[in-house]
């Protein structure tokens, strides 16, 4: 049974005279990967930023688990179960892989006046172990994060997002710059996460998108021009002209 | 092995520092006290600059406010009670930090530097241009505060040796406090904020709260240094709050090594000694009166030679040795 975890209604975001997102609505359901595709500048990353709370929308509402979170700042949304990863890798390069995850996991166990060293926070350690296992990085815990391969860093980025036990994941181009083998591994990872999470995937790799997605939203110039399952999107003439190219 | 070596080194250093009053002249003892006060001051700034990534150019305000607090509120006829003067001085500095930090921390980078500078200048001009603290002439603190319970004087720091030990204790306590703080979950979060604040917010940390708490703690500790400074000299003037003072302590942190607590202490030792050296008439004769020039040149040279500060020197040397030992092999 699918359950809507996050729902955005009529989101509009303007930067001065530019409307970056124009009246966009979408829903993220548990057990489904919802991909958002579009050309550069279509407003995909802005949409992720608005959903995650980094940017406030000018219009529209966002609900998560039936709660209106439109006015919540990003950290509060994150603690309520909204995780995100970044297009640009945002790991802590000088820490080990495990320490990276422990640090983000600690967000759920914040105690301002606790003097126990962070390494002895049992719950954060457990959460980090679990996230590393989910992301397929179990054997790499002691490695310095900055020395991981590019694909490894992207996996760690996902593991850090998972360490806070989110129910909704917003993934901004997790496959950027990956080789085919790394892409396969990442897609398997996303498929394994699907059952427990509602996933929003912003991605340029069309093959990957059509392989993994259950639902696709196509954006052009900030507005949604099509929405549906992969087959219907592939067949949509509007999408073909605007994005996939006429020649296909 | 390294741990034992470190512990031995630390014990030797401590023994040296504790036995110093028995052979050093009163002048040199005063100099060491001054260094320790600046080390405490630099440690308090290290929490902001090196640990949290908040480059403040207004740290002298909190040093000065605390120094004025203890001077203005000590009775003229006898020693004030440290039991309320010291926490009071810290709270005064922290109070100003809460108000200015809540506003300044809404900015970032270069703007944060400018806003902290502006708030420090505001405090500076309050003491400089009003009669509150004797204007530019400053005011005197006639008696060093003492710890008193009722009529029982627990600790009197009038004696220079006692004051020396007291300052050393304050420095070591601050150092230990900050070391524990940085090892705690709070400290880990601060480190995360320094490296990538955006990621920390995405994980669920309300980073503003963390930065404000760190800012207020750092400013409160600067207040301890200000308190000690006033007690040491028995005289305060607006120059304690001047931006040159903020710049000097920032230099101590940068030159000593950002991010490492002992870097701040090392920086304070090095800069105070350099100042002393270039001001020495015995060594530089007439030129000693133009010590700012040589001091400035020395700082430029040090920053150029030590990009990671004094605390980063061992690592720098190790890396150089390693690259030297690698290069002949790779050439083959």
From TrEMBL, chain A:
SUPFAM superfamilies: P-loop containing nucleoside triphosphate hydrolases
A GO term, aspect molecular function: ATP hydrolysis activity
Protein name listed in UniProt: Amino acid/amide ABC transporter ATP-binding protein 1 (HAAT family)
Species: Pusillimonas noertemannii
Cellular compartments per GO CC: plasma membrane
Keywords (A to Z) from UniProt: ATP-binding, Nucleotide-binding, Transport
CDD domains documented for this protein: ABC_Mj1267_LivG_branched
Matches recorded under Gene3D superfamilies: P-loop containing nucleotide triphosphate hydrolases
Pfam families referenced in this protein's UniProt entry, alphabetically: ABC_tran, BCA_ABC_TP_C
InterPro entries (alphabetical): ABC_AA/LPS_Transport, ABC_transporter-like_ATP-bd, BCA_ABC_TP_C, P-loop_NTPase
Residue intervals of the ABC transporter domain: 6-246
Superkingdom classification of source: Bacteria
From TrEMBL, chain B:
PANTHER family, alphabetized: ABC TRANSPORTER ATP-BINDING PROTEIN (PTHR30482:SF17), HIGH-AFFINITY BRANCHED-CHAIN AMINO ACID TRANSPORT SYSTEM PERMEASE (PTHR30482)
Membrane topology classification: Multi-pass membrane protein
GO MF terms held by the record: branched-chain amino acid transmembrane transporter activity
Main location (coarse class): membrane
Bilayer-spanning residue ranges: 36-55, 62-78, 84-105, 110-127, 161-181, 208-229, 249-274, 295-313
GO CC terms: plasma membrane
Keyword Membrane in record: yes
UniProtKB keywords: Cell membrane, Membrane, Transmembrane, Transmembrane helix
The protein, known as: Amino acid/amide ABC transporter membrane protein 2 (HAAT family)
Localization terms from the record: Cell membrane
InterPro entries in the record: ABC_transp_permease, LivM-like
Recorded superkingdom: Bacteria
CDD domains: TM_PBP1_LivM_like
């Amino acid at each position: 049974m699918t359950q809507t975890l996050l729902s955005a209604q009529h989101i509009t975001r303007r930067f001065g005279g530019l409307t970056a997102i124009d009246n966009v609505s979408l829903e993220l359901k548990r057990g489904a990967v919802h991909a958002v595709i579009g050309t550069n500048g279509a407003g995909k990353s802005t949409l992720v930023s608005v959903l995650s709370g980094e940017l406030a929308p000018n219009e529209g509402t966002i609900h998560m688990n039936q709660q209106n979170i439109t006015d919540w700042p990003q950290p509060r949304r994150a603690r309520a179960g909204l995780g995100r990863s970044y297009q640009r890798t945002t790991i802590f390069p000088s820490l080990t892989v495990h320490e990276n995850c422990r640090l983000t996991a600690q967000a759920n166990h914040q105690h301002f006046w606790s003097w126990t060293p962070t390494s002895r926070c049992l719950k954060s350690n457990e959460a980090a172990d679990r996230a590393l296992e989910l992301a397929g990085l179990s054997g790499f815990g002691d490695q310095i994060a900055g020395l991981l391969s590019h694909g490894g860093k992207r996996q760690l980025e996902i593991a850090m997002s998972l360490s806070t036990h989110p129910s909704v994941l917003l993934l901004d181009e997790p496959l950027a710059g990956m080789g085919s083998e790394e892409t396969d591994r990442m897609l398997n990872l996303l498929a394994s996460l699907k059952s427990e999470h509602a996933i929003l995937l912003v991605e340029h790799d069309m093959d990957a998108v059509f392989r993994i997605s259950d639902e696709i939203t196509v954006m052009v110039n900030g507005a949604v021009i099509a929405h549906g399952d992969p087959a219907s999107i592939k067949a949509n003439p509007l999408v073909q002209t605007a994005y996939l190219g006429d020649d296909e | 092995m390294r741990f034992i070596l470190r512990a031995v080194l630390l014990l030797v250093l401590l023994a040296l520092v504790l036995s110093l009053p028995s052979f050093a002249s009163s002048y040199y003892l005063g100099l060491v006290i001054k260094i320790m006060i600046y080390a405490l001051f630099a440690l308090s700034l290290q929490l902001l600059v090196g640990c949290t990534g908040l480059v403040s150019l207004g740290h002298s305000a909190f040093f000065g406010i605390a120094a004025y607090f203890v001077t203005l509120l000590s009775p003229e006829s006898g020693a004030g009670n440290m039991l309320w003067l010291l926490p009071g001085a810290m709270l005064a500095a922290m109070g100003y930090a809460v108000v200015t930090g809540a506003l300044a921390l809404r900015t970032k980078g270069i703007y944060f530097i400018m806003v902290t500078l502006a708030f420090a200048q505001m405090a500076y001009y309050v003491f400089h241009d009003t009669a509150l603290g004797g204007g530019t002439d400053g005011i005197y603190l006639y008696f060093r505060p003492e710890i008193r319970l009722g009529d029982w004087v627990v600790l009197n720091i009038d004696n220079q040796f006692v004051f020396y030990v007291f300052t050393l204790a304050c420095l070591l306590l601050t150092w230990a406090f900050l070391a524990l703080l940085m090892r705690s979950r709070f400290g880990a979060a601060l480190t995360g904020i320094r490296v990538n604040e955006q990621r920390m917010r995405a994980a669920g940390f309300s980073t503003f709260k963390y930065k404000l708490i760190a800012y207020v703690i750092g400013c409160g500790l600067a207040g301890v240094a200000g308190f000690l400074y006033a007690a040491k000299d028995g005289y305060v003037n607006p120059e304690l709050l001047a931006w040159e003072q903020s710049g000097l302590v920032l230099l101590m942190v940068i030159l000593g090594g950002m991010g490492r607590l002992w870097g701040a202490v090392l920086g304070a030792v090095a800069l105070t000694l350099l100042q002393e050296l270039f001001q020495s008439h015995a060594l530089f004769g007439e030129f000693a009166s133009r010590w700012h020039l040589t001091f400035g040149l020395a700082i430029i040279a040090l920053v150029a030679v030590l990009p990671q500060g004094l605390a980063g020197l061992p690592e720098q040397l190790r890396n150089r040795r390693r690259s030297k030992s690698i290069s002949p092999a790779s050439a083959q």
